[in-house]
Each structure stands twice: as structure tokens, then as C-alpha cells.
Known about the structure:
This protein is an alpha+beta fold. 33% of the residues lie in helices and 33% in strands. α1 (14-28) packs across α3.
Amino acid sequence: MQDFRIRPAVPExxxxxxxxxxxxxxxxxxxxxxxxxxxxxxxxxxxxxxxWQRIATTMSEKAALFVAVVGGETVGFVNVNPSRDEDLDPxxxxxxxxxxxxxxFWGQGIGKALHDEGMxxxxxxxxxxxxxxxxxxxxxxxxxxxxxxxxxxxxxxxDDRGTFVLNEVRYIIQL
Length: 175
């Protein structure tokens, strides 16, 4: 187990967050999404860097972005915010928007620490429940969320990417 720390992200972390975002998608979704799509994601790093820089710059008392750092390198991140789902009250429902961790750091407690940091932030911001979306084919991650206390909800959504469709299921947890 490697020493790590979780800290609030700053705008200067945007490049490493974008890189982790792409690399973790390539690692996590290989076999679930088309290889061609995953291989081309590296071309998306500059755009993602701009997005994460904007997010890190505009955090509020209801939204946060944290990074996991090992030996000075960002290896994972979590972003939480008010729920964006129209059927949920954004005053009481927070959202675990994204949580990603590089595969070589799985099973070391870093993902759990990121998750817990996000959940604690949402509690502290006054949310009483939280929700998240996960690919229905992502069995490993779904089992992991269920071990953290999340329960599948009846809501599903599809995201048509042109050459393939992402099918997602919603999970809910009481904070």
C-alpha cells in the first residue's frame, strides 16, 4: 500500500486530472466500449483540461473537486455537486459526478478515501442524500458502490455516442 493524500484540487491540477480522466476511462471501459473510441480519447485531453480548470476555478460551498496524490503524482479524483437530475431536489440531493482512479492504484484504499471525502463534503454542504450514474455494464464498479452502501434506483438513461450507446443506471444513498 502506497502513501497517498487527498486534497482539494486547484486550477493547476487540471492537466493531470484530464490525463487521469482519459487513462482511467481507457483502463476501466476496455471491453465495454469500442477500442477505437477509447484509443482516440488522448486527443480529448486538451479540451478536458480546460473543463477541469474551469471546474477547479468555480468551486462553491455546494461543489468540490478533490485529487488523490501519490509521490507528487495525481492518480485519481472525485467531483461532487448538487444533483443535476430534474426529478431530484438539488437542495437535498448531492451528486457524485465523477470518481476516477488509475488502475494500478486500485485496491489500496485510495478510491474509498476519494469517495469518503466527496460524501463528507456533501454532508457538510447540507445534503441529506446523494446520487450517481454508472454504466450498466460496469459490474466491478457497481459492486464496489453497493459495498459502500449505494442502492440502484429505478432511473436509467442512454447516451448515444453515434457509433455506440452508453446505458447508465442511477444509484442513490442516504447521507
